[in-house]
# Entry
Amino acid sequence: MSKDEIKEILLEDVNKKYEKYEVIEHLPFNEFAEGKSFDKVQVHSICPINGKHLIIFSGVFSWENNKLTSLDQDYYNEEMEVFAYKEYINEETGTKHGLNIIVANDW
# Structure
């Protein structure tokens, strides 16, 4: 998917909460996050449904010292293609450096 296609998906009514994400040329997660640390990475997947694209929460992991660690006992591919992201802090959950990413179906 191109950057313009991703931007259009983020503007669909059902996906409005993602419209402030930074859209990038897709990049494997391990390259995108190389040398960075995130105590929580929340994965959101683009799912085509009935001619629209629904973005759904898919799971969570941490990334430290270029190593992915599942936080929900699921498996994640560190080479999943990242199309958009938004960093965050959430003091209530103890997240000091969090990241939300939007991926296709290769997580």
